[in-house]
Amino acid sequence: MTAPTKEDFQLLLRHLDDRLEATAKLFDERLDSHRKLFGERLRSERALFFRWREAQQKLMNEGNERFATAMKEFRDESASARAEARSVKTVTVTTAIAATIATVGGVAAFNATVLSNMVASFEAGKNMAASLAEATDELKQIQRDVTKTRQEVQELVESLRGHPRSNEP
């Protein structure tokens, strides 16, 4: 078996360089793809958050309007009850019942809204965590591939160093 010529060695080095560049390009493309995906997901999550916040504000405004309406109705009913009442006991009982119902209804509606939004937030966080874990796994695989290719190139270079050169000056 003859020693490789300088041209063979250069051809081999070009081939290895091309392979390494192709691997690096693939790595860059995957990294860009992941960055784009994360950017899209981040924009999507932000949009979802802002929609959620607008819906929350709308619910709060509706709740305030309902509460104001209920309070107005309560005041009207209280005035009417006082006008029609024959005794202080009847007015006190009617007022206490209306206030309790309004308070319980308001607290229940607020609690249901908060619970619903908390569940949605936790789900969004869970989905984001799963996406991050998947991307991390893919990046680790790419790193292992690049490390393996580097080791192969290093082993090849080391094996070529041991061969005598046939075209020495």
From TrEMBL:
<keyword id="KW-0175">Coiled coil</keyword>
<feature type="coiled-coil region">
    <location>
        <begin position="125"/>
        <end position="159"/>
    </location>
</feature>
<protein>
    <submittedName>
        <fullName>Uncharacterized protein</fullName>
    </submittedName>
</protein>
